[in-house]
Amino acid sequence: MNKKVSFKNSRGQRLVGVLHIPHGKGPFPVVILCHGFKGSHESRMIKRMAPELVKEKIAVLRFTFSGHKPSEGGYKEVLVSQFLRDIKKALKILGKFPQIDMKRLGMAGHSMGGFTALILASSLSNKFKSVVSVASLYDGSKVLDSYKKEKRVVEEGEDYWLLSSSSGTKPNFKITKHYFKDRLYLKRKYLISKIESPTLVIHGDNDRRVLVKDAYTIFKLLECKKKQVIIKNADHGFSNPKHLDRVINLSINWFKKYL
């Protein structure tokens, strides 16, 4: 069963997504999928992973964070602390479904979503049993530098940067400079080291958006049960279908083992 869901964030703004529930008798474990900067619950990796998890009798919630279309909110909501509040609201929605086992929660994310998953797993350590971080950033300033190098910062305001898409066909995306001043971002070293959930770190060694160095930093900080997989020649978005398939298979096996 695929059910469209919508709920209000802490600011009263509408967030939208899809809840996938496997056929059969539940309750089922559930994984929340987190998208990256400029993404949504319709992002390629998120949409590909969801049905594969469902085949393994794992429910999935994929929704779009505050400040990203088609959800509501502006660039000032693009903050890790706001995403934490979004997840808390999402958990309340999940709790209304008897088919969902709220004691078997997992979280996976790509890029900014991977970083978000790590930070939230630490902040809500009693909630999540398993985490998968894919191409997660650690040093956000380096990511911004990569956009500047590509001349994709098309405008800079007092409190924001306006980024263009790589193809030029998608709308420009505005992010707040406060993202890098957010209390949870600034505490990332401490928070990652305090994660208790078994954590899988996946990265491509040909990632030019978020350097593989960030994956090594994250993995070193983790003190929980952990595993790292570096996929040879894979780029940031795992555009090669074989690379994406491997990400999905690794993630599924991790959740099957630890949820």
Report on the structure:
This protein is an alpha/beta fold and 259 residues long. Strand 10, helix 7 (212-221) and strand 11 (226-231) form a beta-alpha-beta unit. It has one domain: 3-Layer(aba) Sandwich (Rossmann fold), CATH 3.40.50.1820. The strands form two sheets. Strands 1-2-4-3-5-6-10-11 form an eight-stranded mixed β-sheet, sandwiched between helices. The chain is built from eight helices and eleven strands. The longest helix is centred in the last third of the chain and has 18 residues, at 241-258.
Give a brief rundown of this model.
By secondary structure, the chain is an alpha/beta fold. It has helices at 44-55, 80-94, 112-123, 140-149, 183-186, 188-193, 212-221, 241-258; strands at 2-8, 14-20, 28-34, 59-63, 100-110, 128-134, 153-156, 160-163, 173-176, 199-204, 226-231.
